[in-house]
Write a structure and sequence with these properties.
It is a single chain. With about 375 residues, this protein is mostly helical. The protein has a single domain, classed as Up-down Bundle (Growth Hormone, Chain: A). It has 15 helices and no strands. The radius of gyration is 20 Å and the shape is globular. This is MFS transporter. InterPro entries: MFS, MFS_dom, MFS_trans_sf. Keywords: Membrane, Transmembrane, Transmembrane helix.
């Protein structure tokens, strides 16, 4: 069951990132103006953020298996529309739908926490989050490789078929879970602000991960552009392989979960933030040598991904301990807040790289991690 949930989370969330390496092809094919090409990715993220705030909370009210299967089928349909799209309007509407449907990945993770025994909840959530992070990390190189051979339409067509099959498996294998919360939908949404305002752990964990995810998004927005420069001169396939190597960082998720289960959340959070710092210090130390610089970039991608993977699990373990009846709402708020940090990192990264080059971009990413670490130093040790 843990393996199924991990694979499902990765397959679902990967759909948010397929378009990132295909923006140029999609905008040219659909007639989207160069100045509006960013909408290919932005609308997917907009749909996801809307879903986090207005769909994920329903996981505390609706039967979870039916909600998950319905969301996966909806995402499959949106992917099929994207695969068949030949106009910008059709593709952008499909992109919005993909983001809305993919939020069921954030119903799956609290679902795993519900099924897990208390003593091993962090470790099991960590394993499921490993699958989610692997989906994020493999999506970009996979999309690039498939598009090289079959065009960008094939990427979305294949994903649509894969999710339709996943929906059938989940319907057959997942147990039913009927939440105890009896709130009506308006009350459910209204309760989000109250939960945020009255839950210090949620606010703190969201701030930590907004800083790290902002740095992560900045790194992976600028790294492909940096690696195409004469110093590295990597091809599209080389960049895809670089991204695949960075996936090694996902191994930190279950380790972080076990540390959280053992009561070491605070110190593990500090280590995760320090890994983020290291992920940007290493490229700044890179010498003129192409080989050494590339090795340092690879090492930076791995340690940064380890920090992000570990901190995500530590945050989820902390907020899931606050009660089963509010897990989906807490998870929705948590993800919405740190995705805002990711959006800030992505947009800032492109601008800083264009104006200040690779060193400026790495320094900006370092600043995100240092801010998170400085805030961590204000956390009091638990008695």
């Amino acid at each position: 069951m843990v393996m199924l949930l991990a694979v499902a989370a990765g397959m679902i969330v990967a759909n948010l990132y397929y378009a990132q390496t295909l923006v140029g092809q999609i905008s040219a094919s659909t007639g989207l103006a160069p100045g509006a090409a960013g909408l290919v990715v932005t609308l997917t993220q907009v749909g996801y953020c809307i879903g986090l705030l207005f769909i994920v909370p329903l996981g505390d009210r609706l039967e979870n298996r039916r909600m998950i299967v319905t969301g996966v089928l909806f995402t499959s349909a949106a992917l099929a529309v994207a695969a068949l799209a030949h106009s910008a309007t059709a593709f952008l509407l499909a992109a919005l739908g993909i983001g809305l449907g993919a939020v069921v990945a954030q119903v799956l993770v609290p679902f795993a926490a519900h099924l897990a025994p208390e003593a091993s909840r962090g470790e099991i959530v960590g394993k499921v989050v490993s699958g989610l992070l692997l989906g994020i990390m493999i999506s970009r190189p996979l999309a690039s490789l498939v598009a090289d051979y079959g065009g960008w339409h094939a990427v979305f067509a294949g994903a649509a078929v894969a999710l339709a099959g996943l929906a059938a498996v989940l319907h057959h294998k997942l147990p039913q879970r009927v939440p105890s919360a009896g709130l009506r939908y308006p009350q459910l949404i209204k309760s989000l602000w109250a939960l945020f305002a009255t839950t210090p752990v949620l606010r703190r964990r969201s701030a930590y991960h907004a800083a790290l995810f902002g740095a992560f998004s900045l790194f992976w927005t600028t790294a492909p552009m940096i690696l195409q420069q004469p110093q590295y001169h990597l091809s599209q396939v080389g960049i895809a392989l670089f991204a695949l190597v960075g996936m090694a960082g996902a191994v930190a998720s279950p380790v972080a979960g076990r540390l959280a289960d053992s009561g070491h959340t605070r110190i593990a959070t500090g280590v995760a933030l320090l890994l983020g710092v290291a992920g940007f210090v290493l490229p700044l130390l890179a010498p003129a040598s192409r080989t050494v610089s590339l090795v340092l970039m690879v090492a930076a991608s791995i340690v940064l991904d380890m920090g992000v993977a570990a901190n995500l699990v530590l945050g989820q373990r902390a907020i899931y301990a606050l009660g089963a009846e509010v897990r989906s709402r807490l998870n929705g708020i948590y993800f919405a807040l740190f995705f805002a940090g990711g959006a800030a990192g992505s947009s800032l990264g492109g601008w800083v790289y264009a104006t200040h080059g690779a060193a400026g971009a790495m320094a900006a990413g370092l600043a995100f991690c240092v801010m998170g670490l400085a805030y961590w130093l204000t956390e009091r040790s638990p008695e």
